[in-house]
Specification:
Number of helices: 15
Bound molecules: iron/sulfur cluster
Helix content: 40-55%
Strand content: 5-15%
Strand order of the largest sheet: 1-2-3-4-5-6-7-8
Shape: globular
Distance between the termini: 48 Å
Structural class: alpha/beta
Largest sheet: 8 strands, parallel, barrel
Length: 372
Amino acid sequence: MSGSFDECGGKLGFGLMRLPKLEDGSIDIEQTKEMVDHFMDAGLTYFDTAFVYTGSEEATRKALVERYPRESYTLATKINAWMGCTDAASCKAQFETSLARTGAGYFDYYLLHALQADNYKKYDEYGIWDFAAEMKEKGLTRHVGFSFHATPELLDEILRAHPEVDFVQLQLNYADWENPAVTSRANYEVARRHGKSIVVMEPVKGGALANPPEHVASILREANPEASLASWAIRYVASLEGVEVVLSGMSNLEQMDDNLSYMRDFKPLDEDEAAAIRRVQAVLDSIERVRCTGCRYCAPGCPMGIDIPEYFSALNDLLVFGNVERARRDFRETLEDSAAPDACIGCLQCESACPQQLPITSWLKRVTAELA
Ligand code: SF4
Ligand code: SF4
């Protein structure tokens, strides 16, 4: 297995993307310090930030780097070739900026950030793979990896082209294990085939699995009335072979303490618990939804500029999790860069391009009816 996570002290990683906020919108450094202290007191040491997480690298310096010896924790940050830069030089300059913001001196883990079908070539164009390897040779980072949000075929292609990477960061959770738009299981299996260590992001699906629909929650409560709903999601992925770290983007002390209560002395799911998760997965898989894989073949040809897969993702959130607030928020965010779903003129270009043969125009009407 490539990549070393021996120094992480345990399987829980502190994701620094959703840190607690003060009323003025700035990061609550005092609460962040307390969270860092609880995390470190539990013997855990893996922290994950990124150049593009606003204020996060600076908060890491104040809450962690200035308060703990450098060798007592491990720090991951990320370089982004499609946000926060315009060319190779400005992209590579992110490394120095991240070093200056965090004051960490070096990074234990350096990731190429959020590779997707429409952006991964930027990392080649800007020479970022070689740049990351150079930083590693210089001792400015100890391990190189990438975070990834696309298909298993693309993951396989990238890992073939870059066998030197030490680890991959994947979006894995029990609800998306067979979801064709996320392909958690298939991506996990590709990473395992390539012998890569795995860091998991979004184990609680952006918070959705801490508050799943009642018919799902009741299965889990019956299996163990004491366990928090989030604990099932985190322990599920932490139990997978090859998973070294599970990132939890904790936003307050209460979430930190809940996470620590079962991850301080982590125990993998036992057979009864794994069976409960399988029942939950069967229930989730049976719910009516748009079986969109997010391949985006439909979108570029739409004469009205409707971002079809983004609207379907918001609708699925509503149909599967019943989360009206989050689905409407995602709908509104999509509207900022896309024509509204009811701008559709029925030309059917999208339906002829869709490999899943989805009745896209009907589903768009449903999006409007449920979310507009
Ligand atoms: S049918 Fe509607 S959504 Fe599909 S390509 Fe035509 S205008 Fe766009
Ligand atoms: S082509 Fe079909 S499956 Fe692909 S994103 Fe569009 S609707 Fe989804």
